[in-house]
Design brief:
Helix content of chain A is 60%, strand content 2%. By secondary structure, chain A is mostly helical. Chain A has a domain at 145-234: Cytochrome Bc1 Complex, Chain D, domain 2, CATH 1.10.760. Chain A has a two-stranded antiparallel sheet with strand order 1-2. Chain A is globular. Chain A starts with a helix and ends with a helix. Chain B has 229 residues and is mainly α. Chain B has helices at 28-36, 39-42, 48-62, 83-94, 101-108, 112-124, 138-147, 158-161, 179-187, 189-192, 203-212, 215-226; strands at residues 69-70, 74-75. The longest helix of chain B has 15 residues, at 48-62. Chain B starts with 27 loop residues before the first helix and ends with a helix. Classes of the chains: A mainly alpha (236), B mainly alpha (229). At the A-B interface, α7 and α10 of A face α3, β1 and α5 of B.
């Protein structure tokens, strides 16, 4: 991880910038909304030029996402662990962005981020992030990795814990609505599994695939969660 | 169709799990078999709570009503499946007749009583098919299912799987099965079924049929079946 030090220097500057950006964002989001509405109208009127104007907008939006999710979308340990988006399944990304908007997933920051995105922008962002393949951030303890691998590949049939690989794939790359876990941040995985029911499937009027993970997250104890998180966080 | 062995192949006695409780104890060979089994397998009883917990565990991957689920792999519908077929497949995983690392691990900790409870539960479920298959070739699929493809020596599927594809005994229910699951199975039959030469099984029956179907025919029949209720 030494090789990443130059990035960290850049990060401190970015962190200061980000603080400034956050304070401006509440103002900015109103302006953004108005701009978004205007764009929407214009897009309808001049759809021929839509693609061209979108590409510049997409680049700007991508760099905005990377402010928090890491310069290669490899994830970033901000105040919260901010998840890796690189290599993520496009269907999963699109579904999660909708989940924030529909309050299926409760997160004030990501609600604000996502509710101004047009469907075309969501598609473009999801396709871009899916195409990135930076190495994992690393930093997880190594000692429980072997146990984590066993849980991931085989589950624990004696105590009714399903093998993660059945849905997330043997290389944890995910599929469709089911997320890639390979290279995901260790603290993000732990936080998410520990608080599944408080963070996912929160809108009873819009049931979603999060219900599938609920019993699994419940049945894993803390050390098992740490082991499996350590294992998948090392996967490329 | 003879009942399939459930115990490991080297044990010669047959078991279909329809024996009355206690029968096993009067057979010395069975006593020996039990002494070699895992502690879980030694139980001849399973509580409703244990069976329900195991059922929830199965449904994590196979869908909340066992209607099948698209995980990383297409994970098959178990709902409405004949109990004999389910038991035979669980044993196939344990005996490496069917190769799946995940299902080997799942299958080898299940006691006979648990298998009885689970297969009975799955057999009684009747959710709607998951759907999602292309619909263009459903009519062709129906024709193949009901009449076969005489020119390619493919018998009507209905002659074993039943006119409504509900299956019977060792023959699986195909109605409502996942389109891509059926397609995968028929395309890769020889790589996935009948994999243990020392323990030949009923999968040999399907082998030439799977071979003789072309890819478009497989897709047509899979699409037709995936919408059957």
């Amino acid at each position: 991880m030494r090789a990443l030090n130059p990035l960290r220097a850049e990060r401190t500057t970015r962190a200061r910038l980000r603080a400034a950006v956050w304070t401006l964002r509440s103002v900015g989001s109103r302006v953004g909304l108005a701009a978004g509405a205007l764009t929407f109208v214009l897009v309808g009127a001049v759809s021929a030029q839509h693609r061209i104007s979108l590409s510049g907008d997409v680049q700007a939006k991508i760099s905005y996402c990377k402010d928090c999710h890491g310069v290669s979308a490899q994830g970033y340990n901000g105040y919260f662990p901010i998840p890796r988006l690189a290599g993520q399944q496009p269907v999963y990304l699109e579904n999660q962005l909708r989940a924030f908007i529909e309050h299926r997933r409760t997160n004030n920051i990501m609600f604000n981020v996502s509710h101004s995105l047009s469907p075309a922008m969501v598609n473009a962002l999801a396709a871009h992030f899916a195409s990135l393949h930076p190495p994992p951030i690393g930093g997880a303890p190594r000692q429980p990795v072997a146990t984590g691998r066993k849980i991931f590949e085989d589950g624990m049939p004696e105590v009714n814990i399903a093998a993660c690989a059945a849905c997330h794939g043997p290389d944890a790359t995910g599929s469709g609505q089911i997320p890639r876990l390979a290279g995901q941040l260790y603290p993000y995985l732990i936080k998410t599994l520990n608080s599944w029911d408080k963070e996912r499937g929160r809108n009873p009027t819009v049931p979603d695939a999060a219900a599938i993970m609920s019993p699994v997250a419940h049945s894993l104890n803390r050390s098992q969660i740490e082991a499996v998180a350590a294992f998948v966080s090392t996967l490329r | 169709m003879k009942p399939m062995n459930f115990r490991r192949p080297q044990r010669q006695h047959r078991s279909t799990f329809r024996w009355p409780a206690g029968t096993a104890l009067i057979l010395p060979a069975a006593v020996l078999a039990l002494s070699f089994s895992s502690p879980a397998a030694a139980q001849d009883n399973v509580s409703k709570a244990e069976a329900d917990a195991k059922l929830r565990y199965c449904e994590v991957c196979h869908g909340v009503s066992a209607q099948g689920f698209h995980g990383y792999y297409p994970i098959p519908r178990l709902a409405g499946q004949p109990t004999e077929y389910l038991k035979n497949q669980l044993q196939a995983f344990v005996e490496h007749r069917r190769t799946s690392n995940i299902m080997f691990n799942v299958g080898h900790v299940l006691s006979p009583a648990m298998i009885n409870a689970l297969t009975t539960d799955f057999n009684q479920l009747n959710p709607k098919p998951l759907g999602g298959a292309p619909k263009e070739n459903i009519d062709e699929g129906k024709k193949i299912f009901e009449s076969g493809v005489a020119a390619a020596n493919v018998p009507p599927c209905a002659s074993c799987h039943g006119p409504q594809a509900k299956g019977n005994g060792p023959f699986p229910r195909l109605a409502g099965q996942l389109y891509d699951y059926i397609t995968n199975k028929l395309t890769n039959w020889d790589k996935e079924r009948g994999q243990n030469p020392s323990s030949p099984d009923t999968s040999a029956v399907m082998q030439p049929i799977a071979h003789n179907l072309s890819q478009p025919q497989i897709k047509a029949v899979a699409a037709y079946l995936s919408y059957l209720e």
